[in-house]
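Example for tutorial group B:
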């Protein structure tokens, strides 16, 4: 009976060519350097100015813990919920943020973002090297996953801590995968204690651990008999570790209510924190996520399903969550960086030389990357947009225009009487910069504020832009609002006076509640635009003829307001065009050095008190 000779192995093929080994070594060295460059690029990408609203209430928590030596389990920052218990406190991440800010200032926080980015990608690379994965696959997947990772790593909030802790869990599991009683496995509950006190996303690692413990046992009965007891004990110990928080099992209660409640975390929908991924983000989000999913699907099914099925199910679950909530886009990128390179490296291929495999696979995937990303990226660059989060790198500062910095300084230097009203995004910054004041609301959704409170006092009035009922209901004395939301309503109210303005925000004080001295000293005089355009045109034409200095001053003010405004205003645009048109069509009257010889034959150029300026004639009939 004839038997076919065995197919030559990769080593045998490589040995037949004298130049194959040096070429493989050079290619391997090149991709290793590219992998280290990816790690540095991830840190470079994170060094952007601080612009997240949530970082400020984290800093307030960290300052309270640092100064008092205890964790506040009741609210101490708002006057609407003073003394009420909180369901969850990310005290560990808040304390770390405050320590960096206390000793190094804003540059320390930005540097912390860079460190977290490099640790995240570096440990993912270490995990792939543990699985003997080629650096080439890691670099190619990083080029796709960075589009999704940048959605989270560029922020500074408690959500970045899972990007460091999840690779640590994967490394611990890899070290102890051959021994059910390994000490490395039993370090997982300790990591979960850190996770649950840093961020509330701990159900994801619990799902990963449960699948990793149970999936291999489904296909191996001998292993099931041997390891079911230590696996069950490890899972139970990990679940118990998630209850080691200041609020105990209260976080589990909150998560269950949010998951199985009648309205399913609708307060986060009201605050726009749950934003589904839209088709308008076809190339920015859907293309990389779809490409990663197809790679995972192709490399998992077949004879690898029993080995990697649980990993694919976890990846599929996170992809589905990212479609519901864009906050999970970063987690999709991280799991892709942890899983897919090893899946591609272990996939069965024809026995080709290393040089041929690198050339064929690299050419295909680089061509796909070029077709999917380069045209769109070039168009975005042409439009002045940067989709991978490197718009302002290496700026170790706070993005002040995004926060009411001028108003916070005013609050620190003056004492305002009464109750404050502020919008959802500014509360954390205000009680961080001006701790002597209690705010109306801040960004701690699902931690403190109930859905009914948020809806009745914010979302219900957001579309109508009518804030006066809320101010009257709560007896508000001063309000801090954004120009593009509720501020126009108070500009038209006689009781409310603007005293501090910047490009984004304005501080209003109410008359007759104890702040009249500040109103008298700092009140702005408002230049209101007449709603009748014909009347505005006639009056500005009159100013051009008779009071050219006043006309030019108004034109300069319109140009300044238009250039400094953060949103487009049709009134500013129309007034700018009106200034240009009036200046071009009408010339100012020249003042005579000597009075006219006969005033009866020449009509007066001064406006008559009985007639309007538009009816005056400047030339004889």
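The residue assignment follows.
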């Amino acid at each position: 009976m004839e038997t076919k000779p065995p197919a030559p192995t990769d080593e045998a093929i490589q040995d037949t060519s004298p130049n194959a080994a040096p070429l493989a070594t050079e290619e391997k060295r090149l991709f290793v350097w590219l992998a280290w460059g990816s790690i540095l690029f991830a840190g470079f990408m994170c060094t952007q100015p601080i612009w997240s609203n949530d970082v400020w209430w984290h800093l307030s928590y960290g300052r309270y813990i640092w100064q008092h030596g205890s964790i506040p389990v009741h609210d101490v920052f708002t006057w609407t919920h003073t003394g009420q218990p909180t369901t969850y406190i990310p005290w560990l991440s808040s304390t770390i943020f405050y320590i960096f800010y206390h000793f190094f200032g804003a540059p320390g926080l930005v540097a912390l973002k860079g460190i977290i980015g490099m640790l995240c990608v570096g440990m993912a690379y270490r995990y792939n090297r543990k699985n003997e994965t080629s650096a080439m696959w890691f670099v190619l997947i990083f080029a796709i996953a960075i589009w999704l990772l940048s959605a989270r790593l560029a922020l500074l909030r408690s959500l970045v801590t899972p990007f460091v802790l999840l690779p640590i869990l994967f490394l611990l599991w890899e070290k102890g995968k051959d021994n059910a009683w390994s000490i490395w496995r039993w370090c997982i509950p300790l990591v979960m204690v850190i996770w649950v006190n840093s961020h509330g996303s701990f159900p994801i690692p619990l799902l990963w651990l449960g699948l990793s413990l149970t999936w291999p046992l489904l296909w191996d009965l001998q292993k099931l008999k041997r390891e079911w007891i230590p696996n069950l004990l490890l899972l139970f110990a990990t679940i118990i570790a998630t209850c080691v928080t200041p609020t105990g099992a209260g976080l589990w209660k909150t998560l269950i209510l949010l998951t199985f409640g009648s309205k399913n975390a609708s307060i986060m929908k009201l605050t726009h924190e749950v934003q589904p991924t839209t088709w308008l983000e076809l190339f920015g989000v859907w293309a990389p996520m779809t490409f990663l999913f197809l790679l995972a699907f192709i490399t998992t099914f077949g004879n690898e399903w029993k080995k990697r099925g649980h990993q694919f199910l976890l990846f599929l679950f996170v992809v589905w969550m990212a479609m519901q909530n864009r906050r999970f886009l970063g987690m999709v990128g991280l799991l892709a960086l942890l899983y897919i390179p090893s899946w591609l490296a272990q996939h069965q291929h024809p026995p080709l030389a290393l040089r041929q495999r690198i050339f064929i696979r690299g050419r295909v995937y680089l061509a796909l990357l070029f077709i999917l990303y380069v045209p769109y990226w070039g168009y975005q660059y042409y439009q002045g947009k940067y989709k991978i989060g490197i718009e302002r790198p290496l700026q170790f500062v706070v993005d002040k225009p995004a926060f009411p910095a001028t108003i916070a300084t005013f609050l620190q230097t003056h004492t305002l009487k009464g109750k404050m009203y502020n919008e959802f995004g500014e509360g954390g910054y205000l009680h961080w910069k001006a701790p002597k004041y209690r705010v109306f609301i801040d960004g701690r959704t699902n931690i403190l504020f109930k859905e009914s409170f948020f809806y009745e006092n914010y979302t219900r009035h957001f579309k109508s832009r009518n804030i006066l009922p809320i101010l009257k209901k709560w007896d508000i004395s001063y309000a801090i609002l954004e120009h593009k939301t509720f501020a126009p309503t108070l500009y038209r109210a006689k009781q409310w006076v603007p005293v501090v303005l910047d490009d984004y925000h304005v501080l209003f004080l109410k008359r007759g509640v104890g702040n009249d001295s500040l109103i008298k000293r700092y009140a702005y005089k408002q230049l209101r635009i007449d709603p009748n355009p014909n009347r505005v045109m006639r009056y500005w034409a009159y100013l051009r003829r008779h009071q050219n200095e006043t006309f030019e001053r108004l034109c300069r003010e319109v140009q300044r307001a238009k250039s400094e405004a953060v949103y487009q205003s049709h009134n500013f645009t129309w007034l700018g065009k009106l200034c240009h048109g009036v200046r071009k069509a009408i010339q100012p009257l020249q003042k005579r050095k000597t009075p006219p010889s006969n005033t009866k034959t020449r009509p007066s150029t001064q406006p008559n008190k009985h007639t309007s300026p538009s009816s005056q004639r400047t030339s004889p009939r």
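Residues 180 and 229 are 9 Å apart (CA to CA). Compare this with the pattern of hydrophobic and polar residues in the output above.
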